[in-house]
Specification:
By secondary structure, this protein is of the alpha+beta class. About 45% of the residues lie in helices and about 15% in strands. The chain has 6 helices and 5 strands; from the N terminus they run H-E-H-E-E-H-H-H-E-E-H. A 5-stranded mixed β-sheet has the order 1-4-5-2-3. The radius of gyration is 15 Å and the shape is globular.
């Protein structure tokens, strides 16, 4: 597992969207979710000084596929952030980081734009929630969430793990 530092995400909306749209899995099963989750966990063990929660779940409301901590020291608050980031990805079909950049991190503007009112607290526009898309399927199939690091790192550790895993899958398919 690489111990190189976690990369920096693009700062512009187009760059973020291009990066996300390039992450298309040829298939996605519970085995894929476990492998991606473990890849993220191992990467965090090698690079991150802070603990984080890693969560992978199908887009349906009740099927959790992977949930682990990178190391001791997480709290129930991390799981609250996981739920908020996941909800953001499912509602808008893009990463929570893209939503952060779209609104410049301004939660009030985000809430007003979508008339969220008292529901606004159920969403998070901070990096760390990324949609899973599958070739030949329209929409979000699953969501990968990391909570515990700086939000840019939460986002990029997922992106890097997904890029690596998709390359491995395509290589084994001969693509």
């Amino acid at each position: 597992m690489s111990s190189k530092p976690i990369g920096q995400p693009p700062g512009d909306l187009e760059g973020i969207a291009t990066q996300e749209n390039s992450l298309i899995f040829p298939s996605f099963t519970s085995d894929t979710a476990f492998a991606v989750g473990m890849h993220i966990r191992n990467r965090l063990l090698a690079t991150a000084s802070k603990p984080a929660v890693i969560n992978v779940s199908f887009a349906n409301p009740s099927q959790l596929l992977f949930h682990a901590c990178s190391k001791s020291g997480t709290s129930p608050e991390n799981d609250t952030w996981v739920a908020k980031k996941r909800k953001t990805v499912l509602r808008w079909g893009c990463s929570s980081y893209l939503m952060h950049q779209r609104f410049g991190g301004n939660e009030e503007l985000f809430a007003d734009t979508y008339a969220l009112g008292s529901q606004a607290g159920g969403y998070a526009i901070y990096g760390g929630g990324v949609p899973v898309r599958v070739e030949g399927f329209e929409g979000v199939v699953a969501v990968v969430v990391v909570s515990g690091l700086a939000h840019e790192d939460d986002h990029m550790v997922i992106i890097e793990a997904m890029e690596d895993y998709i390359k491995e899958m395509n290589k084994s398919r001969g693509s």
